[in-house]
Structure formats: C-alpha cells, structure tokens
C-alpha cells in the first residue's frame, strides 16, 4: 500500500512568453530567465515528474501507477486509464501573451496523435492591472469568417476578451479558442496532453529569428464556433469549507478556503486527490507525516489515503482536484 502523502519535483519550462514570477512569487529554482510553466505533476512522455522526498524518492508517476495500481489511482480511475496518469498539473507565468490556440478532443487527438484530448481550466492567482485573457468567440462564427480573419491577422476582432482578477476561473473545453494575456499567473488543471494547435503567435520571433509553427489546417476540424454569453465560471467561496468550481468527466476541482484547522475526508471518492496551494500555506498531517505546502506548491494523496488534517495560521486557499 502507498500509505503516504506525495511531493514531486517540478519540471520548469522555458517559454518565449515566460518570465520570473514563478521564481519570485513561489520560490521555484532555476537560473533561466523566461520560465513560463512549472509542471507540478506530469506523466507526459519525456516529462515525467518524480517523487522529491521520502521512501519513494526518484519514483516517477508511471512507476507509482505500475507498482500500486488501484491503491494509487483508485479502482475506477485505474480501470479507465490503466498505467497512463490522466491529469497534468501546472503553474503558468505569462510575462507576455501566449499564442491564440485551441486543443483537439479525445477522438481527434487519438486519431491524430494517439493521445488524450486537452480539456483544461484556469484559476487566476495573480494579474497585473488591466491583464486580459481571450476565450471563445464574441458571436457565433464559421469556417469562412474564421479563416479570413486568420489570413488578415484580425482574429482579435472575433474573440471575447475579458479583464481578469485574482480568483477568476475559466473552464476551457476542447475546441474553444483561447489565449492568456500578459501579466497573468495561473494554476492550470488539464488532461495529460501536450497537443496545442497554434492559430496566431503575434508575428513574434525567437532568439534565432524563427517563427513558431502555426496549425491553421489542423484547427478546422477541431474548433468550436459557438459563442457563449459569459465564459467566466461562477462559484461561491465557502469560508472554512469546500466549494465546487468545475466538474466534468475529466476532472473535478473544488476550492477550499480556511484558516485554523480543517479535517478532510475522502471516503466518498474512488480517486487520487491533488492539492494546489493558491494562497497562503498549509500543513498536511497524515499519521506521522507532516508536509508544509506553500503558495505555488502541490501535494498528492493516493486513492488509499482517505483522511487528512489541514492546518494554517493564514487565510489559505487550496484547489482540490480529483476524478469523479
């Protein structure tokens, strides 16, 4: 039995649009300048995170899945996904705006890339004044209109653009066009996939003068042209308790907001549970193990760990992630 709390060594990714906030705000360790992403828990091929401490130090996610199967993932999760860990957990720092992009669904990703699709969600942790995100169309569009605006580099004319603040939440299903604007730090929960269809990258060049590849043709079969009235996910903060923010077949994410002590019970779940600290810091107490998780850090409870005690001297917030 894998009867302990798990911490992983993050994988830091340099990006053309990245900055220094993951180092400055969260204490991530890197000598590189443009750190755009911290992959906290990953089973993407070639980017598997490993346990950072304790008796299982050095073991990868895939090692744990193969060794502990249902004790690690949960019965239903293991039956569905086998030895492929289903979620990718990140923190993102957008010093500059990201490309306008979208992601394929499971069926298309399986056919084209032999992988999962990429449904994701964002929790905004920090946003500079007037920071924005682009998500979805303002009005229903179509292939002809879309391709014409891509050709003319006027795609922004079609897109919904929101100013964002700390605490804002956005759910990004597959097919929905989107981009993170400059000055935003966020937590991202997504399916295990690194498939991104880049539509427009602001005509910027890398240090070698090269443009990043665009995938306009690939998007035509993947994009959702339907518009929504509002793309922001509404939720209520329940002080001293748990409130659900997003629930879909791929993951459920709750917000826990508390100060003091809080006992958490997962006997109703048949899944691992991941906690991302998005404000303050929290001590996780389980049997004889105590783990201090600061803002910008992550911890994982295997499916067999059903009860954990939380304590914090600060007003702290956690994202609680699992699969129903």
Descriptive account of the structure:
With about 325 residues, this protein is mainly beta. It has two domains: about 10-220, Jelly Rolls, CATH 2.60.120.10; about 240-320, Sandwich (Jelly Rolls), CATH 2.60.120. The chain has six helices and 20 strands. The protein has helices at about 20-25, 60-75, 75-80, 105-115, 145-150, 215-220; strands spanning about 10-20, 35-40, 45, 45-50, 85-95, 100, 120-125, 130-135, 160-165, 170, 180, 185-190, 195-200, 240-245, 250-265, 275-280, 280-285, 290-295, 300, 305-320. Strands 14, 15, 16, 17, 18, 19 and 20 form a seven-stranded antiparallel beta sheet that branches. The protein is globular, with a radius of gyration of 20 Å. The mean pLDDT is about 95.
Fraction in beta strands: 35-45%
Supply the number of structural domains.
Answer: 2
SSE arrangement, N to C: EHEEEHHEEHEEHEEEEEHEEEEEEE
Our count of helices gives 6
Largest sheet properties: 7 strands, antiparallel
Sheet/helix structural class: mainly beta
Poorly predicted ranges (pLDDT <50, ≥5 residues)? none
| Total number of strands | 20
Percent range of helical residues: 10-25%
What would you report as the Rg, rounded to the nearest angstrom? Answer: 20 Å
CATH architecture of the largest domain: Sandwich
* CATH superfamily label of the largest domain: Jelly Rolls
Rounded to the nearest angstrom, the distance between the terminal CA atoms is: 22 Å
**Mean pLDDT across residues:** 96
